[in-house]
């Protein structure tokens, strides 16, 4: 498959890139600085706002692994930009690496992770912006989207285990040990699995360690 990965030099993006290359997909990275790309793959060196429809629509799947901790509003504006550019181009899927912030924490689906008063303040602004970006995306029918949420505890240096569960109910779910966690490496495997299977078109899934 032809896969374009935005933010391929970030923590999640670089592992998704490596996993896709490992599986022999035709991968192009889309970054602002090509010198930061470790893999020997094709590169489009552009800002997200400079990408054109014809560039994005050339892929089977565009993975949005954009990350920004300072100007968190960019999570909303960049995702809207990508969705607008791919509007009507249903042959290209937009797979968004999101957050756990918009997952529901109650059966009635009235409260989300971002509504938890115990959520650390340093994460709340980012998670809230990403939740708003998802809210705007999930009502669109003109884009072939998928939203991938990691667990609430997203561990950068956790070892690859290949033992995880895919959750499809939009709720914060815990494993048998009462944990909601996933390592970046296992999350990357789950994302590339979804690229290949297309099980969650127009839907969100989350990933938790077994």
TrEMBL record:
What residue ranges are annotated as transmembrane? Answer: none
Q: What stretch or stretches form a coiled coil here?
A: none
Q: Which domain of life is it from?
A: Bacteria
Cite the NAD(P)-binding domain residue spans from the record.
Answer: 7-192
Query: Per its record, what are the GO molecular function terms?
Result: oxidoreductase activity, acting on the CH-NH group of donors, NAD or NADP as acceptor
Which PANTHER family would you find in this protein's record? FLAVIN REDUCTASE (NADPH)
Record's protein name: NAD(P)-binding domain-containing protein
